[in-house]
């Protein structure tokens, strides 16, 4: 259907050709006392439906009766003809030399999707069928394109794709938001055996990994090891956070792209982050124009303009301290829910104010207070800030978080201890600072937040096929 309807001439070049299309019915209408059947068919290749006009003399016509409602699947073999209707240049005409084959019928009264739009909340409750909606179809295509853009960007810039583990004992962010992985609980439940305990505590030595193991919150520490051998690397995979967030920007399972560069400082890091983000947006503008037009029409008026602006100018860059000064000055006007002071972790209201109201474009903030950032970030000369950087985008807030890494073993150990963590738990990470340590930097881009930015979709639960959040692990 894409080949026909998304062609430059709207498919006119195919007029007269015999063509077969397969797909799912969006709508169906009978005309001329049941002698004609108009079907709008979609196959997921574009957010457009092809009109199929089935005449009663076509082979298979009689099998459609009562079965071909919205959601039915079929194959139609006919001829491309000029369409007399408005809105499309051509349609498929199925007459006596043509044929229709019904694969799977639908009982219209049971099918949850109808032609009229549905709320995004309702669509979430039918995550198995929602890819049939235009919204989720468009999101799925843009999502796949952005993944492709990611690999193209890093590959063409000399980065090596490294797979990092999903099960790990290390808490990269040190925030204690990890999902634990254990087999003992299930075994105990199944066999009715008590859990193994020593001194009133669960005995991990009897468990699968023989120590506490978790789903990773970030591939960073593992990818850093590879960076410190192979220079330019990135990982791209699912990450997990057991934060009990019910916001439109947080998921318990989300995908992250994490590049890591050796011999690079925080400014090199910002340059790559900005280039990468722009590459992705530009890629979607070129390869997914029909999808973006759908979002412009149905989700965010002005989306295309916003994306063009994002590409047109360099992102704003300022330090956390400069940003705090600005936010304090703006506070009376902005009326923030949480008052602004140096040392605070910025909320999304502050981040968005900077990007939307002050700069009207993405902003890179850097040199954050050390107390609100992770242990691995490089301590600055002032001893109170670290070489961290976040990219904040209009409508979303933080899309990227990154930093120059602490490459000095003594400082790293101090920071690990200060944060209440154990240096011995990070022995392998510390080794990199003992053997040929180098300055290096990296960042993590939340893939779903990139999709929100590119599509204008407002809830993160609608840009991942099967969103995971408190109470939701079905499908
Ligand atoms: O800022 P974060 O926590 O940084 C890290 O994990 C670093 N280890 C990355 C690195 O330097 N390699 O997360 C990075 C990004 C955020 O900017 C945000 O876009 C996204 O991941 N993110 C989430 N996205 C969806 N749901 C959540 N719960 C998220 N938490 C973070
Ligand atoms: Mg962050």
TrEMBL record:
Keyword annotations from UniProtKB, A to Z: Aminoacyl-tRNA synthetase, ATP-binding, Ligase, Nucleotide-binding, Protein biosynthesis
Entry's EC annotation: 6.1.1.22
Aminoacyl-transfer RNA synthetases class-II family profile domain: residues covered: 141-465
Enzyme class: ligase
Family in the record: Belongs to the class-II aminoacyl-tRNA synthetase family.
Protein name per UniProt: asparagine--tRNA ligase
Organism encoding this protein: Durusdinium trenchii
Segment of the intact protein contained: 240 to 714 of 714
């Amino acid at each position: 259907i894409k080949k026909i309807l998304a062609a430059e001439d709207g498919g006119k070049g195919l007029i007269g050709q015999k063509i077969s299309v397969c797909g799912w019915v969006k709508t169906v209408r009978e005309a001329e006392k049941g002698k004609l059947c108009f079907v709008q068919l979609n196959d997921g290749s574009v957010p457009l439906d092809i009109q199929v006009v089935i005449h009663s003399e076509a082979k298979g016509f009689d099998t459609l009766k009562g079965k071909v409602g919205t959601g039915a699947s079929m194959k139609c073999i006919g001829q491309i003809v000029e369409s007399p209707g408005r809105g499309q240049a051509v349609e498929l005409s199925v007459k006596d030399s043509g044929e229709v084959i019904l694969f799977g019928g639908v009982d219209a009264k049971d099918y949850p999707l109808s032609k009229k739009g549905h709320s995004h909340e309702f669509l979430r409750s039918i995550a198995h069928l929602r890819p049939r909606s235009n919204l989720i179809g468009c999101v799925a295509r843009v999502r796949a394109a952005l993944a492709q853009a990611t690999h193209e960007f890093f590959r063409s810039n000399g980065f090596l794709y490294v797979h990092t583990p999903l099960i790990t004992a290390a808490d990269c962010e040190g925030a204690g938001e990890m999902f634990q992985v254990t087999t003992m609980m299930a075994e105990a439940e199944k066999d009715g055996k008590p859990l193994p305990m020593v001194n009133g505590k669960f005995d991990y030595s009897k468990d699968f990994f023989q120590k506490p193991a978790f789903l990773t919150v970030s591939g960073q520490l593992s990818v850093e090891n590879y960076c410190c051998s192979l220079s330019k690397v990135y990982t791209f995979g699912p990450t997990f956070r057991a934060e009990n967030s019910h916001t439109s920007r947080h998921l318990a399972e989300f995908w992250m792209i994490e590049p890591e560069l050796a011999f690079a400082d925080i400014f090199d890091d910002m340059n790559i982050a900005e280039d990468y983000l722009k590459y992705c947006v530009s890629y979607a503008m070129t390869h997914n124009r029909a999808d973006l037009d759908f979002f412009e029409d149905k989700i965010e008026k002005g989306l295309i303009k916003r994306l063009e602006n994002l590409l047109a100018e360099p992102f704003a860059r300022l330090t956390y301290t400069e940003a705090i000064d600005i936010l304090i000055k703006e506070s009376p006007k902005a009326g923030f829910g949480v008052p602004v002071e140096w040392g605070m972790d910025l909320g999304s209201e502050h981040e968005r104010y900077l990007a939307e109201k002050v700069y009207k474009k993405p902003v890179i903030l850097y040199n954050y207070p050390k107390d609100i950032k992770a242990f691995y970030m490089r301590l600055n000369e002032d001893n109170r800030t670290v070489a961290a950087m976040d990219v904040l985008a209009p409508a979303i807030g933080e899309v990227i978080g990154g930093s120059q890494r602490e490459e000095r073993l003594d400082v790293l150990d101090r920071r690990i201890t200060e944060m209440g963590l154990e240096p011995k738990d990070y022995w392998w990470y510390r080794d990199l600072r003992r053997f040929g340590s180098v300055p290096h930097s990296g960042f993590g881009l939340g893939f779903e937040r990139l999709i929100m930015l590119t599509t204008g979709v407002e809830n993160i639960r609608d840009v991942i096929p099967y969103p995971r959040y408190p109470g939701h692990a079905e499908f």
